[in-house]
Amino acid sequence: MFATIALIEFLVMHSRERAHEVSVQRGAERKRRTIRLKSERYYHPAHTWMQLADGEGIVGSDEFVVRALGVPESVELPPVGMHVNQGDPLWKIRKGTRTVVQMSPIEGVVLNANQALSRNPRLLHEAPYSKGWIAVIKPTALKANLKNLLHGAIAEMWMDQAKRLVIQRFSPRLGVTCQDGGELVDGFGDLMSDEEWEKFSREFFATE
Amino acid sequence: MVAIFVIGTILAFLLIDFIVQRANRRKEVKPVRADRFIIPRGYFFGRGHAWVYLLSSGKVRVGVDDFVQKIVGDIDEVDIVPVGSEVEKGQPLFTLKQGSRKLSVSAPLSGVVVAVNPSIASSPDLMKKDPYNEGWVALIQPKDVAAEIKKLSVADEAVSWLRAELKRFREFITAQTYPERLSPAGVTLLDGGVPISGVLEHAEERIWEAFEKAFLSE
User: Fold this and answer.
1) Does B183 reach chain A within 8 Å, measured CB to CB?
2) Domain annotation for chain A: domains and CATH numbers
3) Contact criterion met (CB < 8 Å) for A10 and B16
4) What does the pLDDT read at residue A122?
5) A100 touches chain B (CB under 8 A)
6) A157 and B28 in contact by Cβ < 8 A?
7) What ipTM was estimated for this complex?
8) Mean pLDDT of A110-139
9) What is the spatial distance between Cα B103 and Cα B123, in angstroms, rounded to a whole number?
10) pLDDT band for position A136 (50/70/90)?
11) Which of A204, B134, B188, B201 matches a 20 to 30 Å C-alpha distance to A44?
């Protein structure tokens, strides 16, 4: 008697489970299509971005960094007037004991830094590509620098693959949808052990 | 009696729920596979079966994909161009050696070779064991990654390309190995049953040369 009920229950649950999987996958695909990266934004492989406005480069941290840290506690901005090379450390984002040092996507002189971030570091998390910008840089070697940056469809592909790679390399628990793994949990770094975080940040944010 | 029945049923349900949930947790996100070849996320593939992995420093690691590793079988030695060499996309980057036979792998991107994997010289089997991590071959500072990376395949495109390559290889090896069986009307294929793993280990030098020409040029 129990066995019969158990069997029926098992079959019902199993079929529901499968239906759920399919719908989750469909949902994830729809979502991915809507998250489009603007084509004129250029990405450095260490997960920083640069967008040109009137010949000046606005730089910042990309959505991947923001996802990794979640809401930051502080952002250490670069000093105005500083000269920086492409790939050199330019700003720091802190959360608890963890710090991400971010690299400048271009070479140039820092003209301005987003002081609103020192008062309200949340901005970085809310809008990494707009209100959460980090600095404005006067480019000094733009043409050469652009050869090392990704943009357009390939940037989009690279970002998507980076997210999936994290899930594959570290743990499926970091993904929102376990089956497909297109999106990462917000603040997924919190789910990593210190050792994992060390390995992860070295691979994704360090330049050497 | 009824109470026992009810409690028993509830227990049975809980047990089933537990088992189902545990089974779900076991499912892990696995690398994509094209037939039996591994294609990891985030890796870009050149037409000549060299892979490219973009490091956060902007440099790229280059290695040989799982397809070539499986087909070639054991590699005895890898000859890499010296550190500091400038290579153009499509030029020879390194040579895989097995006994007296060799295959030249072309550079998937132009740039300067800034390092070679120090472990490869002492244990070339790393390339077969872990082709995408420990088995990397060269570290390159690319010249124009923005333009050249667009020509490589990634993700689903890489999967379908590798599937097509596998099909092409089956046709290739059938034609090379059994030319006498070909009907005048065209190629007679062995229906997907050709064993792929280490198939070149037993092939003559002539087939190695033809393979290099057909599959390893950018």
Assistant:
1) no
2) 38-208 (2.40.50.100)
3) yes
4) 96
5) no
6) no
7) 0.74
8) 97
9) 18
10) very high
11) B134
Hey, are the CB atoms on B57 and A2 less than 8 Å from each other?
Answer: no
* CATH of B32-218 among 2.40.50.100, 3.40.50.10170, 3.30.1490.20, 2.40.50.140: 2.40.50.100
Domain-wise residue ranges, chain B = 32-218
When pLDDT is cut at 50, 70 and 90, the band that residue B28 belongs to is: very low
Instruction: For residue B149, list chain A residues with Cβ-Cβ distance below 8 A.
Output: 150, 154
Interface contact flag, A172 B28, Cβ < 8 Å: yes
B28 touches A: beta carbon within 8 Å: yes
Name which of A47, A149, A165 is nearest B146 (Cβ-Cβ). A149
B13/A9 Cβ within 8 A: yes
| DSSP character string of chain B | -HHHHHHHHHHHHHHHHHHHHHHHHH-----EEETTEEE-TT-EE-TTSEEEEE-TTS-EEEEE-HHHHHHH----EEEEPPTT-EE-TTSEEEEEEETTEEEEEE-SS-EEEEEE-HHHHH-TTHHHHSTTTTT--EEEEES-HHHHGGGSB-HHHHHHHHHHHHHHHHHHHHHHH-GGG-BTTBPPPP-S----TTGGGGS-HHHHHHHHHHHS--
CB contact under 8 A, B29 and A157: no
Rounded mean pLDDT, B118-144: 93
